[in-house]
Write a structure and sequence with these properties.
3 strands
Length: 184
């Protein structure tokens, strides 16, 4: 029995053929290399934020202690000052990442590499999940990166902090370009 081939003359066969084609519009779990590339982009932004916060900290020291005293002490911070600076940097970075994750699901690096963080139902994560993810990512990295490498053996390609925060990083499909070369 000859099979029907899709054609302009036989639109029902064309519709059936289109329905049987695999859809490439659904996000799929993101792989390790793409995640690492997005992390590199975000690390550059994080470094810039940390420099900015440190500059503000130095200006505050000058304002409260005077320029002469700061020059005498040098750039070295006292233990208490160093802890405040580190906590300030960690808090600002959490607000940076958490804000992107909860609002759009994408940091700037993730946007460049077409990645998005979703909750397990496919929606945006909440601030609690963002906090668990932020702390969990630090733990994953502190364990010699084992938490990140875990996605290689995980059946759902999820890292430790993906699991702990009940989230997943998905690779988004490419957007088609219109005839003018611009995205629709």
């Amino acid at each position: 029995m000859p099979s029907e081939k899709p054609s302009a003359k036989n639109p029902s066969a064309a519709t059936k053929a289109a329905e049987n084609k695999p859809s490439n519009t659904a996000p799929i779990p993101a792989g390790l290399l793409r995640r690492l590339a997005a992390m590199l982009y975000d690390a550059i932004l994080s470094l810039a934020l940390a420099f900015g916060i440190t500059a503000v900290g130095i200006l505050l020291r000058i304002a409260t202690q005077g320029e002469e005293r700061v020059r005498e002490q040098g750039v070295a911070l006292q233990d208490e000052q160093a802890i405040y600076l580190q906590l300030s940097i960690a808090a600002v970075l959490f607000l940076f990442f958490g804000g992107f994750w909860t609002k759009t699901g994408q940091t700037l690096g993730m946007q460049a590499w077409r990645l998005r963080i979703d909750n397990e139902e496919g929606g945006r994560i909440n601030w609690r999940q963002a906090f668990i993810r932020y702390i969990g990512a630090a733990v994953s990295g502190a364990c010699l990166g084992l938490g990140y490498l875990w996605l290689i053996v995980d059946k759902d390609q999820r890292t430790w902090h993906d699991r702990w925060s009940h989230s997943q990083v998905m690779l988004l499909p490419r957007q088609s370009k219109s005839k003018t070369g611009k995205n629709p």
